[in-house]
Amino acid sequence: MIAHPNRLPGERLDPIASGAFVVFHLVPILAVFTGIGWHDWQILLVTYWVRMFFITGGYHRYFAHKSYKTSRVFQFILAFGGTTATQKGPLWWAGHHRLHHRYTDTVQDAHSPIKGVMFSHIGWIITPHTDETPTDAIADFNKYPELRFINRRDFIGPWALALGCLWWGGWSGLLVGYFLSTVILWHSTFLVNSMAHLWGTRRFATEDSSRNNPLIAFLTMGEGWHNNHHHIQSSCRQGFRWWEFDMTFYVLKFLSLFHIVWDIKKPNAKALATARIADGAYDIGMFQFHWDKATTRVAAATQRSDLTDARVAFSMAADEALAAAQELGRQSRRPAVPVEGQDEAAAARAVPAME
Hints:
By secondary structure, the protein is mainly alpha-helical. The chain folds into 2 domains: 15-193, no CATH class; 279-350. Helices cover 57% and strands 1% of the residues. It contains 16 helices and 2 strands. Strands 1-2 form a two-stranded antiparallel ribbon.
């Protein structure tokens, strides 16, 4: 089998992990033999939304981006609650996410769509390449022994939740409230890695293919405003407009009333006014996206040593390059709005972004 040209040597699917992943998806089907009642759907709704908050408000906005502060006790609660989502430990999750931002849409980005849509959605997790926790990327939290413990024993949370669902709702509560809820939770979360880089709109000219998508934002309590997030990564608020629903931010604001969390970071007006595509900002991210698609097709055809495929790939690559050039042409006709003598993207990185 010829390797994908944009994947690293260790980025191959692990057959054991892949098999376990498939079996996990099939287990909820057993609920047809136990019967499903309204009580089971109630359990599913609770376990889905509560765990989604632990991923978005805990794993992502706290551990990965430190977009607010909290106590050591609540920090551990966020870590343990996040493990119940069955997405590995907090140090593993946040460490890999930080690497995603460091290498977004390059071959070193573990889940970029340039490696294939399904690979960016789920394949990257079940490869040997991402087995280990990148401790260097998460050293600030790796110093806490309780976080290292829960990161190593990330199975405790899922088992505790599964047994809780069994106690709460019987076998149907386990199958629907834990297994089916987890499957839906997985794919909703993974949409941010895959489709939020392919489907939606772009407000800011970031150096990647991130998009804003209201459907993904609803499913993930605000994470779908992904272009906003890539523009100002340290902002706890990701829905920048009043109509951009961001339930994770609302929950954290509520918790701040009781001083459970504090110093919540929000973007200031100057940061929101920089790198806007509507103002003529050079959208290098989309140019790179088109260019990567083009070069990948040519490289794949060359690997196969298929002359016919190579000609077709070259033609498609030319179309992609033309699309990129046309997009840049449209942008070049818009009036650029310089910020203190800098280009928009550089200004966005240079100005203080938080209030």
